[in-house]
Amino acid sequence: MAEERKKILEVRDVKKYFPLTKGKLKEGVPYVKAVDGVSFDLYEGETLGLVGESGCGKSTLGRTIIRLYEPTAGEVLFNGEDISKKSRKEMRKLREQMQFIFQDPYSSLNPRMNVFNILAEPLLAHGIFKRGPELEEYVKKLMDKCGLPSYYCYRYPHQFSGGQRQRIGIARSLALNPSFIICDEPVSALDVSIQSQIINLMKDMQEENNISYIFISHDLSVVKYISDRIGVMYLGTIVELADKNQIYDNPQHPYTQALISAIPIPDPEKRNEMKLIEGEIPSNVNTPSGCKFHPRCPFAKDICKEKEPPYKEVAPKHWARCWFAGEFKW
């Protein structure tokens, strides 16, 4: 299926390093390797889920792809065009096609602007509308589409619940009819019933407009529901990438196996034995030699400590970064 669809995004060995001192990266200056050589493709109308522990680089990767952070190295091709080195003026035009849904619905909306102005701002900034009845009609239709009564348009963010604020954030990201949206944990701050409403809204919008998503989350159950493929991140790199059913039914990397075992099953007779990963997450400043996961891996051997494992296809369309992928099961 994926090969028959158009590639909308190609990420090639993207890195994002943050110096620990002010200024640009210089030789001898320590830096945090937040994203350290990530590559993948995203297809039209597809949802790619990104999961991993806090601090693994998921959100930084999303912000780097869309140029909220400048990449340290690598290429990002959007519709076949390298955007990693484009000027701010060139990127401004591309913003119509790529958008971002932020994690926190409380801090991502301007408290001094009402909903109408929040949703109208990108339309006015890009010259799609001028102020007038056409703009008002478009904004109200957009609100209706996202499950917000249009008569709420002159209310301010503090007058809404968390779920309603996230709907406003989604409506803002859809205002310019983008083809690609990065969703940075868009439901993590919401209760379960509201989460399902937001996820279903996003799926409906995707089917209606053929939008491609990168969906970043800690919740493995939510990721499985919304995603077509899933990438598992650890210390700034993707350690496994495959179709969601392959990831959940046949995880090849020990880290993925441990994450999957932690998913709660709502049946007391079918409890999983949780695989506990021992040890602390290594520093992103002084990353371990060889495989980054070897200090915490129960199956690590000498080669894991000495050489970085290749990112290889261990099964059709199933990639893993492990010397012994699939050979060991917890």
TrEMBL record:
Q: Which GO biological process categories is it annotated with?
A: peptide transport; transmembrane transport
Signal peptide range: none
Under the heading InterPro entries, the entry gives: AAA+_ATPase (IPR003593), ABC_transp_ATP-bind (IPR050319), ABC_transporter-like_ATP-bd (IPR003439), ABC_transporter-like_CS (IPR017871), Oligopep_ABC_C (IPR013563), P-loop_NTPase (IPR027417)
Listed PROSITE patterns: ABC_TRANSPORTER_1, ABC_TRANSPORTER_2
Q: Identify a single GO molecular function assigned to this protein.
A: ATP binding
ABC transporter domain: residues covered: 9-260
Keywords assigned: ATP-binding, Nucleotide-binding, Transport
User: Member of which family?
Assistant: Belongs to the ABC transporter superfamily.
The entry's protein name is Peptide ABC transporter substrate-binding protein
UniProt source species:
Dubosiella newyorkensis
